[in-house]
Amino acid sequence: MISALRTAIAIDNYDSEGAIRNAQEYLRRSKARGGDFTSLGANQQAGSTLNDAFRLQGMNAWGEYYSDAAFDPFAGTAYIDQSIRGSANPFVNNYFYGDDVITNTPNGQAFSSFLQGLMLEPHIISGRSRSANIIRRPFFEGSIGGGINTAGGELDYIGEGEIQGYSNLPFPISFYGNLQWQRVPDSRDIGALTDAYTENRLTGGNGYLTASPTAYDRFVLYYNAGKGASDLNFEQVFDIGPLVPVPFPVLVPNNIQQSQTNRLTNGGIGWSHTVEYENVINAALLFNRTDSRSRRTEVLDLFGTPFEVLSVTSKFEQDSYIAALNHTVGTGNFTWRYGVEAGYLDSYQSQDTFDILSGAASASSSSHIGVGRLYVDLLHEISTDLKAEYGLFATMLSGDDTDVQRLDPRIGIALSPAEGQWLRAGFMRSSIDVSTPTLSPIGIVGLQPNQISTDPEGYTNTVALRWDAEWTPEFFTTLEVQHQDVKNPQIGIPLSAIPLPPPKAASIAVALAPIFCSATASASHRLLHTPTPRTVILYPLHLAAACLSCRNGEDRWRSHGSTKRM
C-alpha cells in the first residue's frame, strides 16, 4: 500500500521516474505476498494507479503488462484497466493527418469493462483534477475548454464542458457529466476538377450517477448520447458521350455530394451487492439505439443546367434491450464468474436508389430477434507463476428466419517461467455482439480479441499469443500475435448507413499483431463511441509486429512482418 501511495503522489507531481520505480516496487511486494493486490484507486482516463504510472510516459504496453499481471476480478480498477487497453482494429483507416491507427484503442467491449468496474467501485467515476485522490472527500468542480482543429489548411473549433462531484450525504454519491462538440474541416487535391472538401461535426454527452446506499450495495445509472455528421463534396469530369450517343467524348462537370449522420444513444441502470468476502451479485437493465442515415447524389452540369443522374438514400435503425444477471465468487484458488443475459433486438434498414440508366428502386427489411446468453468462466490460480482460465458461452438467437444455438468455448494459460517474463496463450470464439454492454468477461487471461462484426449466424475464432518481457527495470519488450478465422463478417460500407452483407458460408482469415508502443500519452477515454465512416480492407491479410520500449519514453523500434494477400 505504501508503494501505491508513493506512486500516486509521484504521478500527481508529474514525476514519471518516481512513479515507475514505485509501481515496480508495488508489484514486487505484492507478488511476495502471494499475489494479494490492493489498488489505491483509478481514473477513467488512465486506469489504475499502477497502469497510470507507465501511461504517464506513453509506455502503454508496459502499463498493460503490469495491470494484467495484477488483475483482481473483485477490484473495480482492474476492469477500468481492461476498458482502456482495448485491441487493434483489423479494418482501420483514416484520412485525417496525424491519426495513429496502429496502437491499441478501446474496442466495442471497452464500455462493458468500464461498467463492470463502476459496479464494484462506483465512486471512481469522479475525482479531483487539481490534486491526487488519495483520500476520498466531498468536492464539486467544473471545467470548460476550447480550441481549434486544423486539417488540409482548414480551421474550425472544438469545445468541451465537464462537471463532477462527490458527497457523503445522505450516503456516498458521485456524479459526472461532460459535453463535447467539434467540427473538423478538410480540403485536399484528389486530381479532380475541384479539391475534395469534407466536414465532420461531432457532438456527444455523457452522464453518470453512482451511489453506495449501504456498505454492501452499489448503484450505477448512466446515459450517453452522440451524433456524428459528415459531408463530402467535389467535382470530377464525366463523359456523357455514351448517353447521347455521339462518336466523340462530351465532357461535363459532375458534382458529387455525400452526407452521413449517425446517432448513438446508450442508457442503463446497474445494481451490485456484496454477499460476503469475494462473493458479489450484479444485475443490470441496458438499452441502446443506433440510427444511421446516408445520402449520395451525382448531378451533371449540362452547360449551366443541373441534371441529376444518381441518388442513393440509406437508413439503418436498431434498438437493443437487454437484462443481465451475474455472480462472481471466489473459492480458494478458483474464481467463478457466471450469469445469464436475455433481451431482444429490433432493426430496420432501407435503401432508395435512382439511376438515370436503370430508373428508381427501393428495398427495405426489418427484424425482431430474441437474444439469450448463458456463460460460465473459471479463473484458476494454479501457482504464483501459473494460472489458467476456462470459459463456455451458450448463445441463442430466435426470430424472423433466425434460429441459432451455439457454444462458444474459451481457454487460456499464463506462465511466468522467469522473473519479468510472462507468456500467455488463449483461444476464444466470439459470436454475435449486441450493442449493449455485457457483464460477462470480455477476454481470456488478459488477452482481448481484435473486434470484427459478424451477422447473427457468424462467429470469430481467435488464437492469441503474447510475450511480455521486462529485461531490466529500464528495458521492456512485448510481442503479440493474433490469428482470426471469421465466418460471415459484417463490415461497414464507407460513407453508407447500410453494413456490407457477407456472402453465405464465406470465411476469411486474419492474423494480426498490434504494436503497443506510442510516442505520446494515450488520449482521454470518453466512453462514447460514435460511429464514423471509415475505409476498409476487404481482403484477408497476415500481419505480425513487435514493440520495444525504453524507460525514457523516447527510443522506439517498430517492425512489421510480411503482409500478403491469401
Condensed summary:
The chain is mainly beta and 566 residues long.
Question: What are the SSEs and their pairings?
Answer:
Blueprint: H1 2-12, H2 16-32, E1 42-43, E2 47-48, H3 49-55, H4 60-69, H5 76-85, H6 110-120, E3 139-151, E4 154-167, E5 173-188, E6 196-214, E7 217-239, E8 251-276, E9 279-302, E10 305-331, E11 334-355, E12 359-383, E13 386-399, E14 402-415, E15 421-430, E16 454-472, E17 475-489, E18 491-492, E19 499-500, E20 507-512, E21 541-542, E22 545-550, E23 556-560
Parallel strand pairs: 20-21
Antiparallel strand pairs: 1-2, 3-4, 4-5, 5-6, 6-7, 7-8, 8-9, 9-10, 10-11, 11-12, 12-13, 13-14, 14-15, 15-16, 16-17, 17-20, 17-22, 18-19, 22-23
Helix pairs in contact: 1-2, 1-3, 2-3, 3-4, 4-5, 5-6
What does it look like?
The protein is mainly beta. It has six helices and 23 strands. The chain has helices spanning 2-12, 16-32, 49-55, 60-69, 76-85, 110-120, and strands at residues 42-43, 47-48, 139-151, 154-167, 173-188, 196-214, 217-239, 251-276, 279-302, 305-331, 334-355, 359-383, 386-399, 402-415, 421-430, 454-472, 475-489, 491-492, 499-500, 507-512, 541-542, 545-550, 556-560. The strands form three sheets. The protein has a 19-stranded mixed beta sheet that branches. A two-stranded antiparallel sheet has the order 1-2. A hairpin with a 5-residue loop joins strand 22 and strand 23. The model is unreliable at 502-566 (pLDDT under 50).
Relevant terms:
single chain, 566 residues, mainly beta, 19-stranded mixed β-sheet, two-stranded antiparallel sheet, 6 helices
